[in-house]
């Protein structure tokens, strides 16, 4: 009787250990998930920083005329009335 119980307990111990080291919820899976979470946090921080820059630019475009003027000059090549535009070509 005790031999049977010992064998059953040993089999259960082996199954538990197998699940811990090689199963779907194993220690290796835990470390892989931990690494994925760390990478996602880094990406989130980069996205937050980028979003802050974009929000500042949106605020500047809504409130300030300098940003609109700068974009018009750089992207559209516009100049003010009465200004002289010189293009230097090397």
Q: How much helix, percentage-wise, in residues?
A: over 70%
The largest sheet, given as strand count, sense and whether it forms a barrel, is: none
Number of helices: 3
List how many beta strands DSSP finds.
0
The backbone outline, from C-alpha atoms, is: rod-shaped
Distance between the termini: 97 Å
Coarse structural class: mainly alpha
Write up this protein.
This protein is mostly helical and 90 residues long. The chain has one domain (2-76). It is 78% helix and 0% strand. It is built from 3 helices and no strands. The chain has helices spanning 2-22, 27-63, 65-76. It is rod-shaped, with a radius of gyration of 32 Å. The N and C termini lie far apart (97 Å). The model has no long low-confidence stretch (mean pLDDT 85).
Brief synopsis:
This protein has 90 residues and is mainly alpha-helical. The protein has helices spanning 2-22, 27-63, 65-76.
Quick tags:
90 residues, mainly alpha
Explain the layout of strands and helices.
Layout: H1 2-22, H2 27-63, H3 65-76
Helix pairs in contact: 2-3
